[in-house]
Amino acid sequence: MPVKLAFYxxxxxxxxxxxFKYKDLDIKYLVEGEGKPxxxxxxxxxxxxxWEPIAESFRASNTLIRLDMIDQGxxxxxxxxxxxSDQADMIASFxxxxxxxxxxxxxxxxxxxxxxxxxxxxxxxxxxxxxxNTAADVTERDAELFKTFLVTAKGDDPYAFYLxxxxxxxxxxxxxxxxxxxxxxxxILIEFFKSKxxxxxxxRLAKSCLSHDCKDILKxxxxxxxxxxxxxxxxxxxxxxxxxxxxxxxSQLLKMAKTGHVSPYENPxxxxxxxxxxxxxxxxxxxx
Length: 288
Hints:
Elements: H1 3-14, E1 18-22, E2 25-32, E3 37-41, H2 52-59, E4 63-67, H3 84-98, E5 103-108, H4 110-121, E6 126-132, H5 140-154, H6 158-169, H7 172-177, H8 179-192, H9 196-209, E7 224-230, H10 238-247, E8 251-256, H11 263-266, H12 268-280
Parallel strand pairs: 3-4, 3-5, 5-6, 6-7, 7-8
Antiparallel strand pairs: 1-2, 2-4
Helix pairs in contact: 3-4, 5-6, 5-9, 6-8
């Protein structure tokens, strides 16, 4: 198929994006494929579109469900503060809206916060849980990092905002091997970050992280859980995932080599293989 035609067909599919009405908000979502439902939850600066480079690996055999949470992508933007619990409440209502008794949930970073909150407070809705590059709470160190998001988002310097956010996400191996990609990405994002409205959404999303603390309710998670860390993730390093593993029953812990915080892009082969295998494996406990 010619490249231009393939791109055009994908554009048609984006036009089929649907709207879930939640309270006074429009939550945009996309459902593709057939099979066991897999709901993916975005990182803080991700959107439905961010998953497209690896989406085919999931929609080929599963029902892939993507959505933009409050203040993300094409979903409603607000002018008030909210919490991770508020996002999880919306996700719970969304799952019920789709009519699924249970779904598998994959969350990365911010999406992992929401996934942990969801699985802890609505355990009956989550079949299997996959958590990448995330943590049970926000420590004082984490809060300081998020405050750099807050300060630069409120400023008027898109380059300062870029420096405060994007370089933290990628590991040194990616910078070494894909430096040209990073430089191209930098120029695109700095132009995009000139939008004050966009920086305001990141401000509210980052602020919602500051109260994230699920340590006392991790014991409520009943879903079989896979926790994945990036060897080069210095934003939320390995001990944070170890804590999750130690406190979530029926959980497994993996570490991805030469991978930072943006594991779907930095290591897509491993990322998709890990998720696909865990979600679709008919065996949950091997007796060896």
